[in-house]
Specification:
Length: 220
């Protein structure tokens, strides 16, 4: 492989952010998907807004606040399911190909890490629940710098800890804005375009676009 250091975004890349609502879809009703989409959109919006303000609040608090807003926006969804959804968020399903891809990279001698907006406790729980703790070498949380992606200080967490130049690291994210931030920092970036979205940030193109993590080993 050209690359021996692989860093993955967590939410949307390794873990399905809509799995929490889907787990309780029958109880929540027909607007569950809408609720989930608003929850995710606000979670990210709050992270960007707080980074710009310099008013950091850990990602779990933002996740709670975003869900509360989503319930207000979707009145057909009963807020009595709030605690169940939040509990499910600690144990999100990983995408089907994730374990085999990470194990294959590990078998090739690669070093593997997660770099995420998530709080340390959230990430540890998700990794453990998905049984990825034996293949992930390091978990880097923005909590260490008190800023969210796409602040360059976040991407620098890995290069500083691993003593590697950014160009030596392959960074994978399903979030195009995250891939753009990583590309600007200097990482080799792979955009995992799971939902066939049109490209954007055309001046910060990823080196590779894949529909899932399948194919990453062969392309690396």
């Amino acid at each position: 492989m050209r690359y021996s250091a692989f860093v993955f975004d967590a939410y949307g890349t390794l873990f399905d952010v809509h799995a929490a609502v889907r787990r309780h879809a029958a109880e929540i009703g027909p607007d569950g998907q809408l609720l989930s989409e608003i929850w995710r959109a606000k979670q990210l919006e709050y992270s960007w807004t707080r980074s710009l303000m310099g008013a950091y609040l850990d990602f779990w608090k933002l996740t709670e606040q975003a869900l509360d807003y989503a319930f207000r926006k979707v009145p057909s969804a009963d807020p009595k399911f709030r605690d169940r959804l939040l509990d499910a968020y600690w144990r999100l399903d990983c995408y089907p190909e994730v374990p085999s891809v990470l194990k294959a990279l590990k078998a090739e001698g690669a070093r593997i890490a997660i770099l995420s907006n998530g709080s340390p406790a959230m990430l540890a729980s998700a990794v453990r629940s998905a049984a990825l703790d034996r293949v992930v070498d390091d978990i880097f949380s923005v909590d260490q710098v008190g800023r969210f992606k796409t602040d360059p200080a976040v991407y620098d967490l890995v290069t500083t800890a691993w003593r590697l130049y950014p160009a030596k690291i392959s960074f994978q994210s399903s979030n195009r804005w995250d891939a753009a931030g990583a590309r600007h920092f200097g990482y080799r970036t792979v955009w995992i375009n799971r939902h066939g979205q049109p490209d954007e940030y055309l001046d910060l193109s990823p080196e590779l676009i894949l529909p899932s993590l399948d194919g990453l080993v062969a392309a690396s």
